[in-house]
Design goal:
- Helices cover 79% and strands 0% of the residues.
- The protein has 278 residues and is mainly alpha-helical.
- The radius of gyration is 19 Å and the shape is globular.
Length: 278
């Protein structure tokens, strides 16, 4: 048994890890919307998503393998399902939409994730919709309606991309619920690595199938796009996604999804700061 001092130290360490993990998904993921916008300027969107997850997933999987972790066939199948929801649909559509959709708008639309999670959880009879939850859902839907309605009234060509981001949020929400019941690897780092690797392969194949490979010219990739891709791989996928998976194994999905409320603030703040400097 742990002594009283060791127990308090363990609790303190766990608290620090929790604060760090939430800070990662609140702040880092909030900054990735702008990084995605820069990356897709000269790199096709599916290849941006594929490369960032391949770099992060390959490194993390290699580290887990070196530590002696070995996935089973069943765990791979579960990771592939999760990769379809999180990355092929979730990130593939988001990266495609952000070719023209402002990063702040994309982040606001992704904030519908808690709404989708609440609906799915309630529909599966895991919890009931309380008056407080219902008011929150209605407020969130009102916000989405305001954004979509503004684009319809102005005839914006980004309407389709906005709807695509909503599909991204819905797919990610289904993935969150699936991650609670899927037969994933018990170690959250290996689970994250496996889904990243599987997702990257799907995204790169999708990029080739949809003809994006013909639009990829390494010599024309700007320094800003390249550095944004590296940032997305290291900070967004390796660090933040690992933190996200660690949180998924410890906290309710509705609590973790609160990052979508903070991410738009970070995204809009960064855009505003850059606008001041330009």
């Amino acid at each position: 048994m742990l002594s009283n001092g060791n127990s308090k130290r363990a609790e303190s360490d766990n608290l620090l890890l929790t604060v760090f993990a939430f800070a990662c998904i609140y702040l880092i993921w909030g900054s990735t919307y702008l990084a995605i916008r820069y990356a897709v300027e000269t790199i096709p969107p599916l290849f941006v998503a594929g490369f960032r997850h391949l770099i992060a997933g390959g490194f993390l999987f290699g580290w887990c393998w070196w530590r002696g972790l070995r996935p089973t066939r069943q765990q791979w199948l579960a990771s592939i399902v999760l990769a379809v929801l999180f990355f092929l649909i979730g990130h593939g559509t988001l990266h495609w939409a952000q070719q023209t959709l402002p990063s702040g708008v994309a982040a606001l639309l992704i904030a519908t994730e808690p709404i989708f999670i609440a609906i799915i959880v309630s529909a599966s009879h895991r919890s009931r919709i309380t008056p407080l939850l219902l008011s929150g859902l209605l407020l969130g839907l009102l916000g989405v309606g305001f954004i979509i309605g503004a684009e319809v009234r102005t005839g914006s060509s980004d309407l389709l991309r906005s709807l695509t981001v909503l599909i991204s949020a819905a797919s990610w929400s289904i993935g969150v619920i699936y991650s609670r019941t899927g037969k994933l690897h018990p170690d959250p780092r290996m689970s994250a690595a496996m889904s990243l690797v599987a997702g990257s392969m799907m995204l790169l194949i999708a990029g080739v199938v949809t003809g994006e490979g013909a639009q990829l010219y390494p010599s024309l990739v700007s320094l800003r796009s390249f550095l944004s891709l590296i940032y997305l791989a290291v900070a967004g996928s390796l660090v933040a996604y690992s933190a996200y998976f660690w949180l998924l194994s410890r906290f309710p999905p509705t609590l973790i999804a609160t990052h979508t409320y903070v991410n738009p603030l970070v995204a809009v703040f960064l855009v505003g700061r850059l606008a001041e400097k330009s």
